[in-house]
């Protein structure tokens, strides 16, 4: 072979990743197999018992699952339903399942379309489900027809169910059998939420149909977080993880509230930082920097679709939090700071009322926190107090990545 056959890129193509051997094991979407799921034996068997009748075509019990972020709710729900589907297949039960992320499909129609398309096999049913153009009722009719013609039983996972607009879709799905919409197919719902207060927003009839079983997933402790990470250690090349990396990442994630997603994010980011440094090992300082990077990434993602006005309101709150020992601030003080920001950015200011609407939307999306309304002295009416859920530096770095807010402006 002559030199002409060599490209300068060859050395890049030939090189191997010095840090990761199987990086996908640390991807958030990755569903680990059973031996990598740690500390959720009780939750797995409780949920399995709850949907057990489905294996023989009976109606699974509708189940509500609560717990803070990263406590394995989605993972356990996906794992148990996948296992049920496989077991049922061997017993000739036509069991199918669908997973809906209610932050993506928030309206009743979007949910029904997604379900109908997910359960349909158009070549068998001859039913089409267009992405738009039909009334919500027409979509429901197609969904019921699809279910009765193809499946004995279906399990629907509604993740982040508190983000759904209105109760109607929950009502329809949880009572489809009783209401005579379905002739043969049985439907079970697994509704997942981070908010226990979600129940307060439900119509009593919907709540009683949905809540046939209810589980709360507790946070992980540092030992469990360590084990979860140890069971993904093979994401890295042998010997590149220094001994203190996993314990430190576990300690950071345990400080939050025992969030496994946070732990795995920190571990993945620490590996990426080590790679960027051309380091041959992942060390403690990579973990420390990764922690902040993971917080900023998460927060930037939450903010990415927010309008500038809403970002200005969060920014105002972060400047207040940075400059004082207090944590919670009334709307009046946030508004004063907000006006200073909109002035300096040369953008229109919303009225205080409209800004408060934005703050409340942000609180609903868990971008910031709001305390219950409190009386502020006699005759002063009541006001909300808002607080950050993240460190002010994290909030500011995330917002300043939007060029409009960068300090140079
Ligand atoms: N017990 C566990 N064993 C192994 N990995 C876990 C465990 N619990 C969670 N994880 C991992 O942590 C990440 C977050 O888990 P999951 O999405 O199930 O959390 P969640 O409780 O549904 O959080 P959210 O409410 O934010 O959706 C996933 O990558 C998952 O694989």
From TrEMBL:
Key words, A-Z: ATP-binding, DNA replication, Nucleotide-binding
A single MF term (Gene Ontology): ATP binding
Alphabetized Gene3D superfamilies for the sequence: 1.10.8.60, P-loop containing nucleotide triphosphate hydrolases, Winged helix-like DNA-binding domain superfamily/Winged helix DNA-binding domain
Alphabetized SUPFAM superfamilies for the sequence: P-loop containing nucleoside triphosphate hydrolases, Winged helix' DNA-binding domain
CDD domains named among the record's database cross-references: Cdc6_C
Gene Ontology BP term (one): DNA replication
Keyword hit for Nucleotide-binding: yes
Binding site for ATP: 71-75, 220, 232
Pfam family of the protein (one): WHD_Cdc6
Residues in AAA+ ATPase domain copies: 59-221
Domain Cdc6 C-terminal: 314-399
Superkingdom of source: Archaea
Protein family (similarity comment): Belongs to the CDC6/cdc18 family.
Protein's job: Involved in regulation of DNA replication.
Name the record gives this protein: ORC1-type DNA replication protein
Provenance organism: Halopenitus persicus
Organism ancestry: Archaea, Methanobacteriati, Methanobacteriota, Stenosarchaea group, Halobacteria
